[in-house]
Write a structure and sequence with these properties.
about 375 residues; alpha+beta; Jelly Rolls; 2 domains; three-stranded antiparallel sheet; about 15% strand; globular
């Protein structure tokens, strides 16, 4: 039986601490398994080190070495990958996203560096040029269940992760912007450390302001899982699955079957997007509307879906992405013309940079507001 999520509280605060996410009786074996995964990944880092890197590659120099379980799992050693499907992880994510088809987009583990690196930067997991602005997430959260969650699950006591409760539903305050403009590396007013005991986890919504407070050499083994929902009425910015299809070949059959299903869901979604895009190219408003209803079932918040689709269309214009691979260069350009007016409306006149985002260079994309445009006006802009 999974932990019960109080959804009103979760949506208000933007995060939930799940105590004993790893059941106490499983903690020792999961720790031992994850150390084996670390040793395998150290070999991978060494084999794949870049020019100028030390013999151990990123393991020796990265401020937060991240083990990717999909790289080192095999049919005999898969406990961490199987934990993706535990009631305390998948089950909780299913309650949050309110749908059955919950798919991991990435699964790995944060490790401590070889030497102290100090704090990281405060940020929201948003780049306006790639993912959209704060308002598009707020609009969607007001009417639809979340479509994406991230987890930190500590195998040893961990207080590295800090966040500002409720910041996922608002813009940065003037005071926050002043503090962040002064320094991205210091505690913000109203921030709290998420104090995880061994086996505890925290699940959170990624627009929330958060911080890696201290990447020190103290032992750290904290699993990092991310999930997205399919067919929950809302379309996510996290549509990329950050693991290769070949991972199915390195899993026992009971897990491989689930991952093959995930690949099928991804292709089915992109079939829908391709069909919708081809309808747009042809000026077929009914075909466009049918695809939009599949991707984002409720009328409320649909402009956030169109924003994510505009990013996919921009990649397709340049021949990139799953849809880009399916369109000719001429089709990609014709598709982009359908999004051009909306894309212009997403931007401001001069490059700007708001602190506390993943964007590191000024961009003309608006960090906060959505344009005053609805779906009918979008179609009329064709």
């Amino acid at each position: 039986m999974s932990k019960v999520v109080e959804m009103e509280q979760f949506m208000r605060e933007g995060f939930l601490v799940v105590r004993d996410c790893v059941p106490p009786e499983e903690l020792a074996s999961l720790r031992a398994h994850c150390e084996l995964m670390v040793e395998r990944h150290k070999e991978w880092w060494s084999r794949n080190r870049q020019p100028g890197e030390p013999p151990g590659g990123l393991w020796e120099i990265d401020r937060q070495p991240r083990v990717l379980f999909d790289r080192v799992v095999d049919p005999h050693d898969y406990q961490a990958t199987e934990f993706l499907f535990h009631e305390n992880t998948l089950g909780v994510s299913r309650q949050i996203m309110q749908c059955e088809d919950i798919v991991p987009t990435q699964f790995g583990m944060f490790c401590n560096p070889r030497r102290d690196h100090g704090p990281a930067e405060w940020h929201r997991d948003i780049r306006p040029s790639a993912h959209g602005n704060v308002q598009c997430f707020i609009d969607d959260y007001h009417f639809n269940p979340p479509h994406y969650t991230q987890w930190n699950i500590a195998l040893y006591d961990d207080d590295v992760f800090w966040l500002i409760p409720r910041s996922h539903m608002r813009y940065n305050t003037e005071q926050e912007n002043r503090q962040l403009a002064h320094s991205l590396y210091e505690p913000l007013e109203g921030a709290i450390p998420v104090e995880l005991g061994a086996g505890d986890g925290v699940v959170y919504l990624t627009p929330i302001l958060h911080w890696g407070s201290n990447y020190s050499a103290r032992l750290r083994r904290t699993m990092q899982f991310a999930y997205r929902g399919y067919n929950n009425g809302s379309f996510t910015q996290a549509y990329v699955l950050h693991w290769p299809d070949e991972v199915c070949e390195r899993l026992p059959e009971h897990l491989a079957a689930r991952f093959r299903r995930f690949v099928e869901l991804r292709h089915r979604e992109f079939d829908t997007i391709e069909s919708m895009f081809r309808a747009m190219i042809a000026g077929d408003e009914a075909g466009f509307a049918a695809g939009l209803e599949v991707l984002h079932g409720r009328p409320e918040g649909r402009m956030s879906c169109l924003l994510q689709l505009s990013k996919i269309a921009r990649a397709a214009r340049d021949g990139r992405g799953l849809v880009g691979e399916r369109l000719t260069p001429g089709e990609g350009l014709a598709l982009w013309r359908r999004f051009a007016a909306f894309d212009r409306a997403l931007q401001v006149d001069e490059p700007n940079l708001v602190p506390g985002f993943q964007e590191r260079e000024p961009t003309t994309y608006n960090f906060n507001e959505m344009p005053a445009m609805d779906v009918n006006e979008f179609v009329a802009s064709w």
